[in-house]
Amino acid sequence: MAGLNAMVESADIANQKFAVAIVGPTCSGKTAVGIELSKLVESEIISADSRQIYRLINIGTAKPTKEEMSIVHHHLVDIAPLDEVVSAGIYGKLARDAVADILSRHKLPVIVGGSGLYVRAVVDGLFDSPVIDRGIRDELGKRLKSEGAGKLLEELKQVDPDAAEGLLPQNYKRILRSLEVYRSSGIKISTLRLERTQKPEFETIQFGILLERKELYGRIETRVDEIIANGLVDEVKDLLRRGFDPDLNSLQTVGYKESIGYVQGKLRFEDMVSLIKMNTRRYAKRQMTWFRKDSRIIWLSADGRNAGSLAEEIREKFQTVP
Asked: In order of start, what are the domains of the chain with their CATH numbers?
């Protein structure tokens, strides 16, 4: 494989079709590393964050700042209304289009984010999803509340046992998605995955940012304290005043769902803060479980190092990948 410098400097970069991905758990410093890498090579960042894609939820999603976005162009941040569901399949198409656009301008696409399914949608491609009937989605959502995820899982086992294999009731989002696809199109989601998967026309080298648990959890504690101090609760109050449904998919996000509970009088302030910290730690753990399953990721230890050092290592390692 051509080295990173040669790839970026070459006038034929669009034909080489390479991208870099920087992944890892929340609060690991991925955004900062991506920005530092942009100072070393001519590149643009594609956000692989399932919440930063939405407008209006800013504080709790730790979106890149205006200053950071002035340093390097970011794609797929603030592009979707809060009440729209952006599936991984839709995101994958948007992200692959962004990669093609960046490559066509002889720059390096850098995919940065911790949403594992979104990263996979770019790196490996996902099937082209059929249009979902809104009535069916609403009906299944109501049934989830009234009957529970276990009942819907049993239904999925009957219509698409391959899709249901290995799922538990807590995987309710995947259960709902599979039933939505089947009910809307009459085609099993497992069949669509086999027949309609759109493979990317570029190769991605993935780098993971790894921190010791104590350091990561310390960063999470600090991040949560910062977003609370920066006005997360006021942001949530404003969203509810505007009439947004607190059950929106985009608001079922760590930080927002707990803050909604506080605003609605269901949680004390200190309990809200404690829950956000606990749920963020759990989310980080799930992210690491996801990414550790991908043997292609090149892990970089971030303990005691700054973003610039990690960016430099990414550039050096990219040159040595066979």
From this structure: 4-128+199-212+288-320 (3.40.50.300), 134-195 (1.10.20.140), 214-284 (1.10.287.890)
Q: What is the pLDDT of residues 10-35, one digit of tens each?
A: 333 334 588 999 999 999 999 999 99
Give the global pTM. 0.80
Nearby residues of 118 by Cβ (< 8 Å), 6 or more positions away: 48, 49, 50, 88, 91, 92, 95
Residues 6 or more apart whose Cβ sits within 8 Å of residue 94: 76, 79
- pLDDT at 133 (0 to 100): 82
